[in-house]
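User: Before I run my own analysis I want an independent prediction to cross-check against. Here's the chain; please return only the structure tokens and, at the end, one sentence I can use as a sanity check.
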Amino acid sequence: MRIRLAWWREALEKLDRAPPPPEPVLRGIAAHGLPGPELAAMTGGWEELLAEGPLGEDALAAYAAARGGALFRHSARLLGLPGHPVEAAGRRWALVDLARRSAAPAEAAAALAAAARAGADPLWPRPLRPLGMLAMLAARDLARDGAWERQGSPARMLRMLGHRLTGK
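Assistant: Structure tokens:
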């Protein structure tokens, strides 16, 4: 996993000064003019998960900022609203996603606790509602305190559709 992360980091860092390699994701990133070095910094979030021992509060915060905050920030830019305050929602989404996928109960509980402190959602204008749907599902999962709803369940799909149509 470390080798794969290092490859992605190096490939992303080179995007601003060299043509992308024959990798569809990297070509798409280059075509949209996203800043390679900023995207490369997102690998730091994943690297936090590879550290020895349990994830502490600082590691969870770094993970959430590098993975979720940056992902939502860059996505907002691609969706036409750069600078919209979406990073807190992205951090919460990343932490809830980590808790959902973690096999370690203590790690999942720590991630949920950190997600509860991640901040409030912004208003979700129509172009950002795809991000809002992810944030809304994370908030829904957080409210369930680890009693996970099945991904793709009718209740989750209906709630996402409602958010997509109304922004609420």
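Sanity check: The longest helix spans residues 57-78.
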